[in-house]
Every structure is written in C-alpha cells, then in structure tokens.
C-alpha cells in the first residue's frame, strides 16, 4: 500500500512528466508562431511616427517615403505626427512600442544625437532602445551674411572676426538647433569670434539677418539659393564636403581651409530595439529599394533635402560617431539649454 507522502511524490512526478512536454510544446509553438509572423511581415498597416508637425519639410519627406514604402511592402504606411519636445515625444513612443515592426519613426539627428547630450532628463537610450534601419535624407546648410558685411569667404570672415572681436553676431533657430551647432562647429575649428543670438525659430532669425540687425546665420541650401538670387543675403560657404548644385559658385568650408568640416542634419528610420532579424531586414531592404527610385530622389531634392541612403549597419555607426561629435562640441563650446 502506498503511503500518503509517496502518493504525493508520485502525483508530482506524473504532473511534471505531463507538464514538461506541454511546456516544451507551448514554447515551440510560440517560437514557431513568432517566426511565422516575422516571415509573413507585414500583415497589417504600419505606423510611421514623426516628431514634427504636419506641413513642414520633414513631414513632406515622411509622406513621400510612406507612400513608396507602402507600395513596396504591400501594406499601408501611415504617418502619425507626434510633434513637441524636439521630437523626443515621437522618439520615446517608438522606443516603447512592441518590437514587431508595426511602429517605426522618422527621426532627425536632434532627437538622436543632440537631445541625449543637452537634455538633463530623457526617457530613452539611443544606444540601447532603437533598431537603426536606414538614413533617408540630409539637409545641406549654407552660411549666409547680410550683403553689407565686407567678407566673401569663411577664411576672410575668420580673419575679420579676430581683428574685430566684438563686432559680429550670428542668429540661430535656438540653442541646440542645427544653425547653432553648425556655427559653433565652425568657430571651434577656425577660432572665429562671433556672438550667438538665439531666436525662437529659423524664420525670425533669417528675417533679422535680411534686415541687417544680425550679420550671419546658417540656412538650408534650397532657401539660401532663393535668397541669394534676390540679393537678400550673401552666401559664404556650404556645410558639406562637396559644393551644392544649388549654389555651385559657393565654396565649401574645407576649400577655405577647414579640413574635414561637414555639418548636414539628417533624418532616418528607426524601430524599437529587439526587432526580429527578418523584420528588420525586410524594412531595411524596402528602404534601399525606395531610395533608389529616381522619381522619389528628384522629389527629395525638390523639397530642399539631399538623398542620403545608408543601410542599418552604417546608420548605427553614424549614430555612435555623431553622438560623440555632438557631445564633444557641446562640452567644449559650453552649450547649455536656456532656463
């Protein structure tokens, strides 16, 4: 006769014998289901979050991209604007989304390489919380001056500023904005002495340069070419290593002696960390296909951007490189957000 303790042990062993294969089967079923789901990706619409409001230049790029991605992936890609906090709202939302490939974001370098350095509190880790799928485009900048400023090149500007250390000022769209960081990068490398006047946006900053209240600023080359043609500003140098087709007569900073100088804000597609490899590869391949389309590239250029397609590995490397570069610039130039 089996005693009660022995009976209990027997029942426990039987339960374990039954439960173990069941657990293995459930795990295998779950793994198989996940693999099957990844293989069939995408099976429903995809959200593309955007940190900018509707109607702007980045929004235009996002909608062009979404249209072509949707056609390539054979599922709708829906742009969802989440403006505010320097695109940190959109970045946090995608970082916290399920890692299934149905929530992506088009983020700029401000959200990924500037805010993490400038902001004291940020709800995501750029090195841990994202899957980097590919860059899309970048915005070449041009330094412009009021026509009355008696300099024609950046090296002339540098010499003039050193000879007149309290004479010059430049406007930016605000602390940490691309015009601000680009100008500080120029000052850091050249030793130029130019005072910073931060504005609440690029439009009022440019307006005061045109009016002659401020001497200099950085703007995108598309806008710069339009203003230069009408004589409202004088272009000094472009921020890329090659001359801009929109301003072919304007030299680069490198031509003026600043070796390796380049500053061109970019945008790229990210997903949450931990995307299944087949899903990440599918999205990255679709991006490369879309960004090889001549019609799309022409539309990107027409909106003031420059096509800038790189794969996931190159994008991840760019993040690490630019994050370190921005951290160094911000520390050495003592850049801090206003209270």
UniProtKB/TrEMBL annotation:
InterPro entries: BUG, Bug_dom1. Residues 1-25 form the signal peptide. It comes from the Bacteria. Keywords: Signal. Belongs to the UPF0065 (bug) family. This is Tripartite tricarboxylate transporter substrate binding protein. It comes from Cupriavidus cauae.
């Amino acid at each position: 006769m089996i005693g009660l303790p022995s009976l209990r042990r027997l029942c426990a062993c039987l339960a374990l014998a039954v439960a173990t294969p069941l657990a293995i089967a459930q795990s295998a079923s779950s793994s198989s289901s996940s693999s099957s789901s990844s293989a069939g990706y995408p099976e429903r619409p995809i959200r593309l979050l955007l940190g900018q409001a509707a109607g702007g230049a980045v929004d235009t790029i996002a909608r062009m991209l979404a249209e072509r991605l949707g056609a390539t992936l054979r599922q709708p890609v829906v742009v969802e604007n989440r403006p505010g906090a320097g695109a940190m709202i959109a970045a946090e939302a995608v970082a916290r989304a399920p890692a299934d490939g149905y929530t992506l974001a088009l983020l700029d370098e401000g959200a990924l390489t500037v805010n993490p350095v400038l902001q004291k509190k940020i709800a995501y880790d750029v090195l841990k919380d994202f899957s980097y799928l590919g860059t899309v485009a970048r915005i070449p900048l041009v330094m412009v001056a009021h026509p009355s400023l008696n300099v024609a090149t950046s090296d002339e500007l540098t010499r003039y500023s050193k000879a007149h250390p309290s004479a010059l000022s430049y406007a930016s769209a605000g602390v940490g904005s691309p015009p601000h960081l680009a100008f500080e990068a120029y000052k850091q490398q050249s030793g130029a002495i130019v005072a910073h006047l931060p504005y609440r946006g690029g439009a009022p900053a440019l307006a005061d340069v045109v009016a002659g209240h401020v001497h200099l600023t950085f703007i995108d080359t598309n806008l710069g070419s339009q203003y230069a043609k009408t004589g409202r500003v004088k272009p000094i140098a472009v921020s890329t290593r090659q001359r801009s087709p929109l301003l072919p007569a304007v030299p680069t900073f490198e031509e003026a002696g600043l070796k390796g100088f380049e500053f061109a804000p970019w945008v790229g597609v990210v997903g949450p960390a931990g995307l299944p490899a087949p899903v990440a590869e599918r999205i990255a391949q679709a991006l490369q296909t879309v960004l090889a389309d001549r019609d799309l590239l022409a539309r990107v250029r027409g909106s003031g951007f420059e096509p800038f397609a790189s794969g996931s590995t190159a994008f991840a490397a760019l993040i690490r490189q630019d994050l370190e570069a921005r951290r160094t610039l911000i520390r050495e130039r003592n850049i801090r957000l206003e209270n």
